[in-house]
Model the fold of this input.
Amino acid sequence: MKRAVFPGSFDPFTTGHEGIVRRGLSLFDEIIIAVGANALKKSYYSLETRKKMIASAFVDEPRIKVCHYEGLTVDFCIRHEAKYILRGLRTSADFEFERAIAQVNKALAFEVESVFLLTVPEHSMINSTIVRDIIRSGGDASNFVPKAIDLKKYRGED
Ligand code: ADP
Done:
């Protein structure tokens, strides 16, 4: 069973994230979307809200699971018998950032491989920070999140 973990803050989960996960299904049997629970980093949507939003986008897809974790991503992978970390790349800045993380993860757990998918051009400008700012300012961000996520149902924390 080829199992991958797609880790991130997902505050909120966007169409960019969705694209990477759906494409990942052609490479992996199962993908665990792992929402990072960082007690020190304040998020706009609570952990439970982020998990609910993501689950609502994949009700049709039994090969996708939604979990959360604290601590190291590689430890989460080992606990869940996942040999792959899936990440998305938009720009060269993403590449530089991801390279450092992947190389450190390799040093921590040699058996876990990081796999990168390049985003499609129409998703390359989408990032959670901008989507969050649109929502906070009362704008319509529905084109930037998966169709199944009804943003009106969810409240942010500030
Ligand atoms: P993190 O805080 O770990 O960067 P994010 O929620 O911002 O978490 O992103 C999780 C993963 O999704 C990262 O690999 C990031 O590069 C990727 N990603 C974010 N936005 C997009 C997008 N629009 N297209 C493709 N990949 C994306």
Observations:
- The longest strand covers residues 30-36.
- The mean pLDDT is 96.
- The pocket of adenosine-5'-diphosphate is lined by residues 8-10, 14, 16-17, 20, 87-88, 90, 94, 119, 123, 126-128 (CB under 6 Å).
- The domain at 3-147 is CATH 3.40.50.620 (Rossmann fold).
